[in-house]
DNA sequence: AGTGCTGGTCTCTTTTTGAGACTATCACCC
DNA sequence: GGGTGATAGTCTCAAAAAGAGACCAGCACT
């Protein structure tokens, strides 16, 4: 674990140098992670890691996403190479979305964070509650 | 790896049930990950995982973030329990931000994704380039 | 001919983000 | 004793992103 911290230091300097240079696209974190930052990107990737899904299925699976955002998020995931989109000439035509190899590889890394979120959801909620309560009564 | 896929299926169903029920806050992915989705949250967490930093230092470390967003992102990270904020009554007063235990734990999970981003930055860029090129010339 | 399914797009409104001017306090310098 | 610089922010205005939901087009079924 300490060794990863050592690696981290140099990595951070790389990030800094790159953003410092002006070209943000050269910073992997900004460039890659930002593409995953959509409000439902993680969830959709998780769904597609399970199995391929069609547009309408994804919509039902993640009901609080608007069609517009679902379209756009899938488009972005496809553009970044995580998702494959295939149109079947049925009547009416159906569209199937699936994870590419790159997408599956990315999801393997993302999964750690999803797992953490699940394990620590309560801790985060408690932190929020405590913070808000303290904020309302700052007069110590 | 396959066993994690099995776990995933049931997990996804939990997500679905929870968003389906209407209360999005009960879905760990939406609730936790969304708090990390800020454009620079990952980068700031990475910086603070290295060592504590002061406000101005963070601003210089991540130059393309506005003061306003830096303030707000740090506030959000603090509220979710990842970051500790300490004011020192120097003249002028200085404020130091550091990772809490929870934040460090979260970063351990996040780090996989950061590492992946670094390793696969080129692949993502190529995917984008290929997608855009194909999009301009769709007539097959 | 009307209804439903498919996978979207278009418009309008609200929310989020970005850029950057402005605040307040105190040490230092002249 | 007044201007300058450092600290860590806040405030306002403009632009970008996201959400809600109406609308579109093609075809099967009735």
Structure in words:
The structure is a homodimer. By secondary structure, chain A is mainly alpha-helical. Chain A has one domain: Arc Repressor Mutant, subunit A (Orthogonal Bundle), CATH 1.10.10. Chain A is built from 6 helices and 3 strands; from the N terminus they run αααβααββα. Chain A has a 3-stranded antiparallel sheet. In chain A, helix 3 packs across helix 6. Chain A starts with a helix and ends with a helix. Chains A and B meet through helix 1, helix 2, helix 3 and helix 6 of A and helix 1, helix 2, helix 3 and helix 6 of B. Chain A binds a DNA duplex (30 and 30 nucleotides) through helix 4 and helix 5.
Keywords:
homodimer; 140 residues; mainly alpha; Arc Repressor Mutant, subunit A; 3-stranded antiparallel β-sheet; 3 strands; globular; disordered N terminus; DNA-binding
List the helices and strands and how they pair.
2 copies of one chain form a homodimer.
Chain A: H1 2-21, H2 28-33, H3 41-50, E1 53-54, H4 55-61, H5 67-79, E2 83-88, E3 94-99, H6 101-136
Helix pairs in contact in A: 3-6
The first copy, chain A, binds a DNA duplex (30 and 30 nucleotides) through helix 4 and helix 5.
């Amino acid at each position: 674990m300490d060794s990863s911290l050592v690696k981290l230091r140099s990595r951070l300097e790389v990030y800094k140098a790159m953003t410092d240079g002006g070209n943000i696209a050269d910073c992997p974190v900004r460039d890659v992670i930002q593409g995953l930052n959509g409000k439902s990107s993680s969830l959709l990737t998780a769904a597609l890691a399970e199995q391929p899904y069609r547009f309408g299925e994804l919509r039902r699976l993640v009901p609080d996403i608007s069609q517009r955002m679902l379209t756009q998020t899938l488009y972005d995931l496809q553009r970044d190479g995580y998702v494959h989109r295939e149109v079947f000439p049925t009547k009416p035509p159906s569209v199937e979305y699936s994870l590419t190899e790159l997408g599956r590889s990315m999801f393997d890394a993302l999964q750690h964070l999803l797992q953490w979120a699940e394990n620590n959801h309560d801790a985060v909620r408690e932190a929020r509650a405590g913070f808000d309560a303290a904020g309302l009564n700052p007069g110590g």
